[in-house]
Amino acid sequence: MSESATSGAGMTVAAAFAGMRSAAPVTFKASCPDCRERFELAAAALRLAIGATSRATFYSFTCPECGAAVRKPAGERIVELLTGGGVRTLRLHSTL
């Protein structure tokens, strides 16, 4: 679709989106338990695993400072924030 394309109401695409701004990328503040560094991570740098119980739900990332694999528990609020921010999610299934 080109910018000169019109919608059913006769408005051009360019006119319809004229006032919109692009959204800033989402970043999350995190820290490493190994090296104690604090930093910001893009959504693509995090992974969220949702398990059958709250004890099996966690998020993980690789520390950009020391390279350590970090895994932290994710409560309900953290799950909301990460999924809303575009973090890729893996749903873990129980084997029962």
TrEMBL record:
It comes from Streptomyces canus. This is PHP family Zn ribbon phosphoesterase.
